């Protein structure tokens, strides 16, 4: 019985090499549930597989493939794993895919922009309260370095070339200039000063 199963699987592998696979992404509302059920039944009728796995979409490149293989190897204690090469079947679906990537990266840029604005507000608050010390400068420098690292990671993922990235560069330049101006006004730290805690990215 086991031998028959292996033969059957081997035939399926040979056939699959010539036919390829289709990944279908969709999003329907939870209610009314009949829509979701109808779509599920239609897809199952086509032979769709709903694996109990987490899926993500990545831009195909030699570097990404290499890192994916490394990641898959690190998860060898967990099974199954799956890497499938796919492409959009028409320009409309390609546009949808790129739009999803664009929305995702712009969300990241918006979060980074909010942190940059908070950084600038913190400098203003420190000046207003008279907390213009070397200790504060050191903490702000560390916070700005974190924002810079966050921006570098986000920009490396931005193959779309979102215009939001340019806005972040301008914001970071404002942050650097504001910190430079602040540091020029800074006084030596007092012995009893307690460093504040800031988010690090």
Quick structural gist:
Helices cover 64% and strands 0% of the residues. The chain has 201 residues and is an all-alpha fold. It folds into two domains: 23-86, no CATH class; 101-185, no CATH class.
Please describe what this structure looks like.
This protein is mainly α. The chain folds into two domains: 23-86, no CATH class; 101-185, no CATH class. The chain contains six helices and no strands. It has helices at residues 2-19, 33-45, 62-74, 91-129, 134-157, 164-185. Helix 4 (91-129) packs antiparallel against helix 5, helix 4 packs parallel to helix 6 and helix 5 (134-157) runs antiparallel to helix 6. The protein starts with a helix and ends in a 16-residue tail after the last helix.
Summary keywords:
201 residues, mainly alpha, 2 domains, elongated
- Biggest beta-sheet profile: none
Mean pLDDT equals 86
Strand % is under 5%
Taken together, the total number of domains comes to 2
**Beta strand count:** 0
């Amino acid at each position: 019985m086991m031998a028959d199963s292996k033969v059957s699987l081997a035939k399926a592998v040979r056939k699959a090499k010539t036919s390829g696979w289709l990944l279908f992404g969709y999003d329907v509302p939870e209610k009314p549930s009949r829509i979701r059920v109808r779509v599920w039944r239609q897809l199952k009728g086509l032979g769709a597989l709903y694996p109990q796995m987490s899926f993500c979409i990545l831009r195909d490149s030699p570097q990404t493939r290499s890192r994916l293989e490394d990641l898959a190897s690190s998860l060898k204690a967990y099974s199954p794993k799956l890497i499938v090469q796919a492409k959009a079947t028409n320009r409309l679906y390609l546009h949808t895919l790129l739009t999803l990537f664009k929305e995702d990266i712009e969300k990241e840029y918006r979060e980074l922009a909010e942190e940059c604005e908070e950084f600038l507000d913190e400098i203003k608050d420190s000046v207003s309260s008279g907390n213009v010390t070397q200790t504060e400068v050191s903490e702000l420098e560390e916070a700005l370095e974190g924002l810079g690292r966050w921006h570098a990671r986000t920009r490396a993922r931005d193959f779309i070339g979102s215009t939001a990235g340019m806005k972040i560069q301008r914001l970071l330049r404002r942050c650097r200039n504001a910190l430079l101006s602040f540091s020029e006004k800074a006084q030596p730290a007092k012995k009893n000063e307690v460093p504040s805690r800031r988010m690090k990215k």
